[in-house]
C-alpha cells in the first residue's frame, strides 16, 4: 500500500509548482502587454506627425493665398482640438460634429486629415514679432527661438496623455524649422 502512494505522488505536480508557473506566466504577460502598449503609443505619435505635416501644408497653402498664416487655436489650455485629452484606446474623427466655431476655423484652414486621431491639436500663428510664450504648452519641453521671427510664423502642437498619469506626450512643429519634435513619446 505504501508503494502505491509514493508512485502516485511522482506522477503529478505539487500546488507550489503550479503556482510558480502561473506567477511566471503572469509576469511574462505583463511585460508583453507593456511592450505592446509602447508600440501602440509610438504608432499614435507617428500618426500625430502625419497630422501635423498636413496642418503645416494647409498653413503654407493659406499663406500663399493670404500672405499670413491662419491662427485657428486660442492660446493656453482651452485651445486643444478636437479635444484636450483622450481616454485610453479612444480615437475620434478630427472634425467635430455638430460644427462649432473652432471646427469652422479648422475647416477654413482645411488640413486634409482623414484618419482618426488620439491627440489634441493646436495651430497658432502670428505676424513677424516675438512669439508669445502663451502659445507653447509649458509641459511640452520645447523652447521657442530666442530671436524674433522676420517672417509670419506658425506653431503646431499635438498633445495626449495615453495612460492618464499626468505626463503628456507632445509633438511640436514650427514654421522656422523643418524638424518635428517629439517629447515623452510613448507616455
- Briefly note the structural class of the backbone: alpha+beta
Low-confidence segments, given as residue ranges, are none
Count of alpha/pi helices = 3
Strand content: 5-15%
Task: Sketch the topology as an H/E string, one letter per element.
Answer: HHHEEEE
Q: Would you tell me the overall average pLDDT?
A: 82
Query: Between the first and last Cα atoms, what is the distance in angstroms?
Result: 63 Å
Give keywords.
187 residues; alpha+beta; 4 strands; 13% strand; elongated
In short:
It contains 3 helices and 4 strands; from the N terminus they run H-H-H-E-E-E-E. The chain is α+β, with helices and mostly antiparallel strands and 187 residues long.
Report on this structure.
With 187 residues, this protein is an alpha+beta fold. Helices cover 37% and strands 13% of the residues. β2 and β3 (169-174) form a beta hairpin. The relative contact order is 0.16. It contains three helices and four strands, in the order αααββββ. The termini are far apart. The protein has helices spanning 2-10, 15-66, 101-109, and strands spanning 120-126, 153-160, 169-174, 180-183. It has one domain (2-183).
What's the topology here?
Blueprint (H helix, E strand, L loop, with lengths): L1 H9 L4 H52 L34 H9 L10 E7 L26 E8 L8 E6 L5 E4 L4
Antiparallel strand pairs: 1-2, 2-3, 3-4
